[in-house]
Each structure stands twice: as structure tokens, then as C-alpha cells.
Amino acid sequence: MPGRRAVGAGSSRSPLILLPPSEGKTAPSRGAALSLPGLSSPSLNPAREAVLDALVSLCTDSPDLAMDVLGIPKTQPALVAANAALRTAATARADRVYTGVLYDALGFETLSPAARRRATRGVMVTSSLFGLVSPADRIPAYRLSGDAVLPGLGGVAAHWRGHLGPALLEAVGSGLLVDLRSGMYGAFWRPPADLRVATVRVLHEVAGTRKVVSHFNKATKGRIVRALLESGAAPRTPARLAEALADLGWTVEAGPASGAGSQLDVVVAEL
What we know:
This protein has helices spanning 45-61, 63-70, 77-84, 94-97, 101-106, 113-122, 156-161, 164-172, 183-186, 214-231, 238-247, and strands spanning 16-19, 92-93, 123-127, 131-133, 138-139, 149-150, 154-155, 177-179, 197-206, 209-211, 251-258, 261-268. By secondary structure, it is of the alpha/beta class. The strands form 3 sheets. Strands 1, 3, 4, 8, 9, 10, 11 and 12 form an 8-stranded mixed β-sheet that branches. A two-stranded antiparallel ribbon has the order 2-5.
């Protein structure tokens, strides 16, 4: 089966929203086995194959070492066995496999049909195993953190830094990149200075004091993505994104532009 074009390739209208993955995943109970040629951004397939080979080999040949390398508790050997079986494991849409605070707040499964179509075209997830996936890509559940160092491959982040750039630039096209990745997955690829990029920081304000709280940050980012997808907003610049979020009811403060793009602070008082 021929690979699909990169999601959003050449788009000049809707922004590309780039998400981190979730550590927690729902393992599909049934479904076709993994097919790398069926994933979006097929130019990444050789790099995906390299990570897949290293991970499956480690978990098949050296399960005890795999627990240490992957940070898996000794009480959960099933996670190592699942990694060893990745090539034949059942797959499901990525938007059903990824779980956790951000994805629960986003609620892919309850989006309207139009918003789900926008998500398929305009959302991508950074993945330690696959580099990038679209919400519609069929993937198995896996255990691989972005800071892992695999025997025979090296650091996962360093591996993807050498491969993600062309695929992401194709996906963004001439539009805006809304970069919602966490710091760990931000290390997979740094946008060039001439790309229009908006990052979002969520600040929890209590009694006049603001701070970043992980749970608020993740949940609010999920709700922001959901609201943008449902509204059909298509901002082309960070300033327009700030306006769109304000129109949707968020309190937004725009920071100065820098070589890393423009940061938008979303201020929340409660979850």
C-alpha cells in the first residue's frame, strides 16, 4: 500500500498543531498489524524502521536490560513483552491509543465530524517510535520515552533530530506552527528562525501569583486544541492565534517574538 502524503503538506491556511505523545497508552485489543508504509509522512519510514529494530531487538534479546533502559518497573514485564511483539501487535488509530490528561481534555472521540477532519489534516503527534504520527495513523501501544538511549541506535531524541526537519517543514507548508510539545519532545526538532511558530504556556493564577502546574498545563492545552478544531479557526500568525483564543474565551497574553517564535501565555484560575 503506498504511503500517504505528509499531513497538511503544502497547507497555506490551517495551522499545524504539534502535540507531545502520552506516556500512557491504550493497547488495541484487535486490529491489523503495524504497516509502516501506511503511516503519514512516509519519508520517515527508514528512520522509523531503525528505531523499531533497535527497540524490538532489545526487548526480545535482553528483557532484563530493556527494563533498565526503558525505565520499566520490575513488576511490569508485560510492557517489555509488548515491545518485543510490536511488529505483529494489533493497531488502532493514534487518537485512540494515546491517553492521559491532555488527550482526555482534547477528547478526539467526541469531536464533531468536521473537527475530526480538521484534526486529521492539521494535528500531528511527536513520537519516540515513529517520529510523527497523524491522529488517523494506525499504531500499536508501545513503551519508549523521548529520553531513552537504545543499544545500537543511541539517543532517541538525537536520532529524530537528524530526520524530522524535512517532514515537519513539508507538513507546516507556509502556515503557522502551533508547537505544544513538552521540553523533552521539543528536543526532537528545533524550528528554523524563519518559520512562523507559536508556543503556548499555561499559567495558573491564584491570589495574584502565577505558576506553571503540569496538570493545568496539559489539560488546558487539550481544551485549547479542541476549541480550535471545533471553531474552524485558521490563524496564520501568532498574533491571530492569540486573537482566536481570546475570541474563544481564553485569557491570553502575547510575549515578544524571538528566534524560537512567539510565546503565548494562557492564564487560568481553575481547571
